[in-house]
Amino acid sequence: MKRVSEFVKERRKEVNLTQEEFAERSGVALTVVRKIEQGKTNLNMDKVNHVLKMFGHELGPVKCKDLSE
After folding, report:
1. What contacts 24+ positions apart, CB below 8 Å, involve 46-52?
2. Which residue range forms the structural domain that includes residue 17?
3. Half-sphere exposure of 62 toward its Cβ, with a 13 Å CA cutoff?
4. What is d(CA 32, CA 54) in angstroms, rounded to the nearest whole number?
5. What region, left, alpha or beta, does residue 17 occupy, with left being phi > 0 and alpha being psi -120 to 50 degrees?
6. Is 47 within 8 Å of 32 (Cβ atoms)?
7. What's the pLDDT at 25?
8. Structural domain count, the chain
9. What is the CATH number of the domain that holds 11?
10. Which of 2, 9, 32, 40 has the least CB density, counted as fewest CB within 10 Å?
11. Three state DSSP letters for the chain
């Protein structure tokens, strides 16, 4: 399973945006994009979902059982 940090960084690079450009277009602070790409764990989920919506995704609760299947 791909980590959120890897997913965001890869997708951002695919659309050829710097972190600064991506933050501006997604409507979050540059520090939010940097923290996500660095894999920080103390993130505001609303901000993470705001970033992920740029790619048509969002995070939500998943049962542990579903992850092991």
Report:
1. 48/4, 50/26, 51/8, 51/22, 51/26, 52/4, 52/8
2. 4-68
3. 9
4. 14
5. beta
6. yes
7. 93
8. 1
9. 1.10.260.40
10. 2
11. CCCHHHHHHHHHHHCCCCHHHHHHHHCCCHHHHHHHHCCCCCCCHHHHHHHHHHHCCCCCCCCHHHHHC
Burial of 22 (0-12, 13-18, 19+ CB in 10 A): buried
Both structure tokens of 12: 């951002």
N-terminal to C-terminal alpha carbon distance within the chain = 12
pLDDT of residue 36: 94
Closest Cα partner for 58 from 8, 16, 17, 1? 8
- pLDDT lower than 70: segments of the chain: 1, 65-69
Q: Is the whole model's pTM more than 0.70, yes or no?
A: yes
